[in-house]
Amino acid sequence: MDADYDVIVAGGGLTGTVAAQSISYYSNQNLSILSIDRNSEMFPGRKSNPGWTCGDACSKEAVDFMTERIKVPWTSPEIEHDVKGVMAFSPDKETAIPFDGDGYMLNRQKLPEIQNARTKKMGVNFDFEINLTGLIYDGPQVIGVQGINNKTKQPYKKTAKVIVDATGVTSMLRNQLENSTKIEKKIERRDLESTGRHIMYFDKGEEDLTDFDPDFCIIHLDQDIAPGGYAWVFPKADNKVNIGLGVEKSILDQRNKRLGKNDNLASLMEEYLQRNKAIKNAKLSQDPEDINNNTGVFQVSVRRQNDCMVSGGYILVGDSAWMPKPIDAGGIGPALIAGTILGKNVVDAIEANDVTEKGLWQYHLDFIKEYGYKTAGLELFRRLVQTLTNEQISYGMKHFLGNVDVEAISKGEHPDFSGLSKLGMIIRGAMNKTVANGLKYTSQQNQWLVEHYGNYPKEPEGFEEWEKSLHKTLDESFAKIATFSKN
Ligand SMILES: Cc1cc2nc3c(=O)[nH]c(=O)nc-3n(C[C@H](O)[C@H](O)[C@H](O)COP(=O)(O)OP(=O)(O)OC[C@H]3O[C@@H](n4cnc5c(N)ncnc54)[C@H](O)[C@@H]3O)c2cc1C
């Protein structure tokens, strides 16, 4: 039976549009592509009713990666403000580490409007207001999607040779996937961060570049303010900001117990806004391009990407593949990289007439080479930082980070602390020795993990053994990292 389309991109969010554009580009518009989203055409790509909840920051490097390959430029108004990078401050604010380099603050409400217009021009078809509930199978192959058409309340079914799952972190398609034992369906609760942010105008308060900097995205690491995550002040103009924070639930509970408080995400966000000395009289933006997006909460994953990302006729990308970077939850960069890469892999598979698991497998190797090699190590690093106290984080950032480490961090890589104890430095206090040991340990594990990802199986056959060995090391590492905890 002929399929309705060559490719269906499920989920028309940030990643879905890039994936659709890339498939169109690499096929010279010769493939029929359908993008399906549950939102109305008025609000394309919205994560949920409160909007396109995001910190809105992304690196120029990732945008360039996409633009150079699939010739889609991002300009104003989807780029709202330029920044020179991200500056992460220690809890005592005495140390700041720059990373990510030049970047952009996006307008996430405008971006999908503009992206959809571009995507349409590239020959992609759209169905809106479709709530997808599952996949359609033919033996080992996924051959379509199904759901409800919210306009007509009628069942909805469409078939394709390949289904790209770009439905975000809560993906119903992945959760219930039936044709793979390799793809992980769910993640641990502690690999998810609850995050919220406001987009606001404000009056200038005290001049304090640790609280607001029009040229830098500021991150505050602080286990009291944002337990298990971080808080951020990202500039959108001299008097406009994206301000928010993310927490890990169990670490928030520990923090509340420790401080005798009963805070939740909303109260932490309010406290964070109030304590900012540079931002006064902040008000939610009423600009037309923010009005449907000025405040909201959503979740984001902070682990390595799914160990396996393809099955017969099915391929995961973006948040539905848990691609946000484990250390800072930045999901736009990897989404741009993976969405771009995927287009070529999907087109190659369709042209080779092999859209089986094996036919789509190359996607893993290409994504790992470009980005995915570093994420498991960063997952360990994130877990270690989550176990540290504010004093330990401040001490570690001040004393253990040399220029080489900062450079590694700026490239989004795990810094190499393997020589830490050999430096002959005097480390004050048992708690700080714990930090040094922890950093040394995650560095060593990271080296093994990067090498292991370099040996990702070239075909599905080798996957089981590769994954077994990955999980053995990760389980041992998680257990060891927990012993560094002083919470
Ligand atoms: C508070 C917060 C702050 C963040 N800050 C940053 C940041 O500053 N920088 C950064 O790089 N990343 C950040 N991220 C992560 C970033 O927002 C995501 O990585 C990015 O939006 C992922 O895009 P996506 O298209 O994969 O998923 P989504 O944006 O979630 O899009 C999924 C799309 O699929 C649709 N959909 C879902 N289910 C169905 C269904 N069943 N049927 C039909 N359609 C469906 C959704 O409505 C949506 O349109 C942040 C995340 C949060 C929550």
Structure description:
It is built from 14 helices and 19 strands. The protein has helices at 14-26, 60-70, 110-121, 172-175, 249-259, 265-275, 332-351, 357-360, 362-370, 375-387, 390-399, 403-410, 430-454, 463-483, and strands spanning 5-10, 33-36, 57-59, 79-83, 86-89, 96-99, 103-106, 125-127, 130-138, 141-149, 154-165, 192-204, 217-220, 230-237, 240-247, 279-284, 295-301, 310-311, 314-316. Strand 5 and strand 6 (96-99) form a beta hairpin. It starts with a strand and ends with a helix. The structure holds flavin-adenine dinucleotide. Flavin-adenine dinucleotide binds next to helix 1, strand 3, strand 9, strand 12 and strand 17.
Query: How far from one another are the termini?
Result: 59 Å
Spell out which ligands are present. Answer: flavin-adenine dinucleotide
Mean pLDDT: 95
Which range does the strand content fall in?
15-25%
Quickly name the level 1 CATH class of the largest domain.
Alpha Beta
The domain tally reads 3
Largest sheet: 8 strands, mixed
What is the number of strand segments?
A: 19
Query: What class would the helix/strand composition place it in?
Result: alpha+beta
Helical residue percent band: 25-40%
Residue windows where pLDDT falls under 50 for at least 5 positions: none
What name goes with the CATH superfamily of the largest domain?
Answer: FAD/NAD(P)-binding domain
- Described by its quaternary structure, the protein is single chain
